[in-house]
Every structure is written in structure tokens, then in C-alpha cells.
């Protein structure tokens, strides 16, 4: 009897539940412009999303498979796996999640909850992030929305070390023995969002540890101080973002102020810096979508001392050694940058043409790209693209100069299901 009750209960549960499954398969290749060699970096071959809901509860997961074309290596990635509860006051989530904060498209100084995967740095939005174990709650209070996020364990950026095909990253990863332990892994974020007039406005706060490594102690090599130990600084962030409309123009503004410190055994440093993004969007002739961003970063103060090993001599640190450990990844390229783009959809939504440019307003380096996507039949897309980097031949260590050899063509095919 109990067996039949269990079967009936299972059938009722299955009928009342909501199940969805979607994804895409997209084999592709990156071909170096200078010599037509294959760039052997991982690309996202498979992406799938599964959702299972019943009543006030839902389970979501996102799975990806990355592939290297030259070596044939495959790597699975459970990007997200979390449960959602929908109470009367909002929603509660727990598990491995990718969070999205900020108002601008892709370059968000206030969005520091997840580390970045630098293998996919040139992909849009959440596709270049790593999921983290976290608990979050969205609470709706009249015109206000409050989001609280708790992250119990720190996760750093995924850096493509020892990758000759990715030229701007150091060739060797520091051994674990040269990375200082984090004293407090716990991280906390709070975001308040409301409407002011016709504008969406939010204020955010985050307390955590840097996503990128910073020098923690120094040694002497040929008479010059060089990093020998590394660590993740403790950083506090206060952010503000706004979205609104000016006639037919959509504007987005976002800024974040950071206060960071490292009070380790052999270092004592403090710094404040800010980052900001101003974005405009406009749909014009033939429904062409135009967008542009102005991205900036500024160090306001830096004070630091470190102990040079093995002599135990204390020296002052120069501001030039300081690098932000949070904020938008494009801050590693320049303190001031301009990004522009345009996209047109033609032939009854079967052909997409897009172009973009990123221009370093300090050093005059630039990246120029284009993409063509054609859908001959439903759910199938053929794509062809290019990214070209231009640096300064008189500055071989300038990031855009190093990236010149990374200029490439892309070709791929995508099937969505």
C-alpha cells in the first residue's frame, strides 16, 4: 500500500512541477592575424541551464564545457547550482551563484561579488565571472528593494598563467607558500534600490577581500626591490548607480569608492581609489543601436611600507606599485578609456552586424572589433569576427603593445536548444 501511495505522490509532484532545460553548443576557433596559427586558449563549447520548480521553491543550475582546439582538452564547469525560495517578501537564494550588480553594461565598478575568469575577459557580462558559494535575499519594501549577500569563502580571479597565447599575464603563478593566508574569509554585501522620479537608483556596500593578488613583501634582485610574497588585501566599497532616460537616449552612470589596506606581518599599506562608468545608448536610423562608455579609474591616496627580505630593512612603497584589486577589469589597461559600439539587425532578424572600439585615452592604444552573425535556419547561427589591438612600438611593456600579437579572427557555429 505504501508503495502505491509513494508512486501516486511522485506522479502528482511531477505533474505540478515546472521543468525547463536550454542551452547552446558553439564550436569555434581563434586564428592569429599575424601568422594564421590557432590560438590555443579555452573557449566555451557547451552551455546549458536547467531549472526545476515546485510551488514556492526552485532549483537552478548552469553547466559549461570549455574546450581547447589545438590540444583537444575538455574541462567541465558547474558554473551555478543554487536553490530559490519565493516567500511573500521577496526571494532567498543559497548555493553557488553568479550575482549581478550595477547599471552599466559589462564594465561595473560596483560589481565585486564574483571573481573574474580572465580566460573569458572579452566576453560580455556574467559570462566572464566565476560562481561563488553564497546566500542572498531580495526583500521588497514598498518602493524600496534591499539585496543582502553573504559569501563565507573568498575566491580569487582565475588568471591564465603560463599561457604564451595570452601575453599580458605573468608567465608563472606564485607558489602557495608565497601567498599569505586570508585572516577573515567572510564577505558581505548590501544593495538598496528605488525609483527617484523616472530614474532607477541604487546604493551599494561591499566588504571583502581583493579578487587579485598584490605584493606583500619585497626582496632585492640586482639592487631593486621586487615582490617575494603576495596576498589579498581587505577592501571596503561604497557604490552608486543610476539608470534613466533623456528623450530617446538611455543613460547609465555608475561609480564606486574603495578603501583598501594590508596589515600583514611584513607590510603596512593603505590606499583609496575610485572607478566610474558613464554610458549612453540610442537607437537610430534603421534601428541601429549605438552605445558608448567612458570608463575611469583614479588613485586618491597611497601610503605603504614593507620589509625587504632577508635584510629586514623597512622601505617606503611607491604609488606606482599599487594596482586595484577590485572593480572593472579594464582598469588594468588604462585609467581613462572610451568604448563605443553599434549593432544592426537585418533580413528579418537573420543577420546581425556589430562593431566596437576601445580607446585608451592616456596612452592612445586601442582595440577594434567586428562581428557578423547569420542565422540560415531557426536555432542555428554562423559567426565571423575579428579583434585587433594597436599599441606603441616604443613601449614594449605597454599592455596594448603586448596584445598586438593577440589580434585574431574568430569563426564559429552555434546551435541553441
Q: How would a crystallographer describe the biggest sheet?
A: 18 strands, antiparallel, barrel
Q: Tell me the structural class.
A: mainly beta
Continuous helix count: 2
Look at the structure and give the mean pLDDT: 90
**Helical proportion?**
under 10%
- What Rg do the Cα atoms give? 24 Å
Measured by DSSP, the beta-strand proportion falls in: over 45%
Q: How are helices and strands ordered from N to C?
A: HEEEEEEEEEEEEEEEEEEEEEHE
| Terminal residue distance | 41 Å
User: How many strand elements?
Assistant: 22
Describe the protein in words:
- This protein has two helices and 22 strands.
- The chain is mostly beta strands and 417 residues long.
- The protein has a domain at 20-86.
Summed up:
This protein is mainly beta and 417 residues long.
Note the main attributes of this structure.
417 residues
Give the SSE layout:
Blueprint: H1 2-16, E1 18-25, E2 28-32, E3 43-54, E4 57-67, E5 74-85, E6 90-97, E7 132-141, E8 144-151, E9 187-196, E10 199-209, E11 214-221, E12 224-231, E13 234-246, E14 249-262, E15 267-283, E16 289-309, E17 313-316, E18 336-346, E19 351-360, E20 366-374, E21 380-390, H2 399-403, E22 408-416
Parallel strand pairs: 11-16
Antiparallel strand pairs: 1-3, 1-22, 2-22, 3-4, 4-5, 5-6, 6-7, 7-8, 8-9, 9-10, 10-13, 11-12, 13-14, 14-15, 15-16, 16-17, 16-18, 18-19, 19-20, 20-21, 21-22
Amino acid at each position: 500500500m505504501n508503495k502505491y501511495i509513494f508512486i501516486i505522490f511522485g506522479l502528482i509532484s511531477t505533474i505540478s512541477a515546472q521543468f525547463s532545460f536550454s542551452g547552446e553548443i558553439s564550436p569555434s576557433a581563434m586564428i592569429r592575424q599575424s601568422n594564421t596559427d590557432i590560438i590555443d586558449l579555452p573557449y566555451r563549447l557547451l552551455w546549458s541551464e536547467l531549472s526545476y520548480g515546485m510551488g514556492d521553491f526552485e532549483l537552478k543550475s548552469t553547466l559549461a564545457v570549455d574546450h581547447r582546439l589545438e590540444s583537444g582538452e575538455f574541462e567541465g564547469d558547474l558554473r551555478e547550482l543554487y536553490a530559490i525560495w519565493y516567500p511573500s517578501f521577496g526571494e532567498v537564494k543559497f548555493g553557488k551563484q553568479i550575482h549581478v550588480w550595477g547599471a552599466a553594461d559589462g564594465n561595473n565598478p560596483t560589481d565585486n561579488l564574483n571573481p573574474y575568469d580572465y580566460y573569458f575577459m572579452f566576453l560580455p557580462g556574467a559570462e566572464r565571472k566565476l560562481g561563488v558559494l553564497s546566500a542572498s535575499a531580495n526583500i521588497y519594501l514598498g518602493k524600496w528593494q534591499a539585496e543582502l549577500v553573504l559569501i563565507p569563502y573568498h575566491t580569487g580571479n582565475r588568471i591564465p598563467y603560463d599561457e604564451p597565447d595570452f601575453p599580458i599575464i605573468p608567465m608563472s603563478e606564485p607558489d602557495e607558500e608565497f601567498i599569505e593566508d586570508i585572516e577573515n574569509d567572510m564577505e558581505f554585501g548590501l544593495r538598496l534600490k528605488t525609483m527617484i522620479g523616472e530614474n532607477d537608483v541604487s546604493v551599494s556596500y561591499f566588504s571583502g577581500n581583493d579578487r587579485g593578488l598584490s605584493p606583500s613583501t619585497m626582496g632585492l634582485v640586482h639592487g631593486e626591490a621586487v615582490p617575494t610574497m603576495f596576498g589579498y588585501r581587505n577592501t571596503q566599497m561604497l557604490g552608486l548607480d543610476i539608470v534613466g532616460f533623456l528623450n530617446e537616449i538611455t543613460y547609465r552612470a555608475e561609480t564606486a569608492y574603495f578603501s583598501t589596506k594590508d596589515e600583514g606581518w611584513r607590510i603596512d599599506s593603505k590606499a583609496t581609489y575610485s572607478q566610474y562608468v558613464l554610458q549612453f545608448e540610442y537607437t537610430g536610423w534603421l534601428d541601429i543601436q549605438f552605445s558608448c562608455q567612458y570608463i575611469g579609474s583614479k588613485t586618491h591616496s597611497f601610503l605603504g611600507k614593507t620589509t625587504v627580505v632577508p635584510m629586514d630593512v623597512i622601505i617606503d612603497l611607491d604609488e606606482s606599485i599599487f594596482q586595484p584589486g577590485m572593480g572593472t577589469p579594464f582598469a588594468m589597461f588604462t585609467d581613462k578609456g572610451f568604448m563605443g559600439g553599434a549593432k544592426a539587425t537585418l533580413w528579418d532578424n537573420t543577420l546581425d552586424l556589430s562593431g566596437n572600439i576601445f580607446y585608451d585615452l592616456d596612452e592612445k592604444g586601442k582595440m577594434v572589433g567586428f562581428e557578423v552573425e547569420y542565422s540560415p535556419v531557426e536555432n542555428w547561427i554562423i559567426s565571423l569576427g575579428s579583434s585587433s589591438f594597436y599599441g606603441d612600438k616604443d613601449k614594449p611593456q605597454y599592455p596594448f603593445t603586448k596584445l598586438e600579437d593577440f589580434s585574431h579572427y574568430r569563426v564559429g557555429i552555434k546551435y541553441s536548444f
